[in-house]
């Protein structure tokens, strides 16, 4: 990463949740990961980086028209929902407004919302990235020091193909991949209990093996996840779904372990050897 990269001093770990394509449950995963980390005692923020299609207001149950307070005529004070700090372009524009912007405007808006938000001292800032491998991904890598990326995919081949592109992109910009999340991995029938891998099986494992990373989460295909997301109360924020909560708790533990490992690697002093030749 280039010399322009800086560290947001009050944030310990910046982790982006990304996917190669839309429709794989990335935003739902990002929100529940943030909430699971918070439930484990960490101070957490959640940033919606999808300028064109922000979903955080709906996912986190923040009423339409709610705006962040502006401090010192520049800094946006993040809103709080379910115990975590949040910011999104969705808080700044009307929900019906189409963001018909060219790439430089999108990058400028993203950079401003990232660096001009008055985040508290956070252990984790989870960034819900837009799908694909475009300008915002590149801008993030060039703007702040990112601890790593979590790649969300579903087991089917077309999603895996796009996820590979996402991993390759992060490799090129020097952002380590903390691991792969296989979303919608298994569906368990609520009537008979039969478990079925509707979208196939083993795809996330193959992807992780190809790139030498871990599968740090396997999340079920469950109607309650969708329903709770639509209600603005993600399953981790509800006490009704302990099995689903545990799936996200396991993901949070995996992300934390990988973040610590990459932090230790980044802070390791170089070994200097002296020879007589």
Quick structural overview:
The protein is α/β, with parallel strands linked by helices and 277 residues long. The protein has helices spanning 26-39, 56-59, 103-115, 135-143, 157-172, 203-211, 223-231, 242-267; strands spanning 11-18, 44-48, 69-71, 75-77, 79-81, 84-88, 122-128, 148-153, 177-182, 187-188, 195-196, 215-218.
Q: Can you describe this structure?
A:
The chain is an alpha/beta fold and 277 residues long. The chain has one domain: Rossmann fold, CATH 3.40.50.300. It has helices spanning 26-39, 56-59, 103-115, 135-143, 157-172, 203-211, 223-231, 242-267; strands spanning 11-18, 44-48, 69-71, 75-77, 79-81, 84-88, 122-128, 148-153, 177-182, 187-188, 195-196, 215-218. β5 (79-81) and β6 form a beta hairpin. α1 (26-39) crosses α8 (242-267). Mean pLDDT is 88; it is low at 269-274.
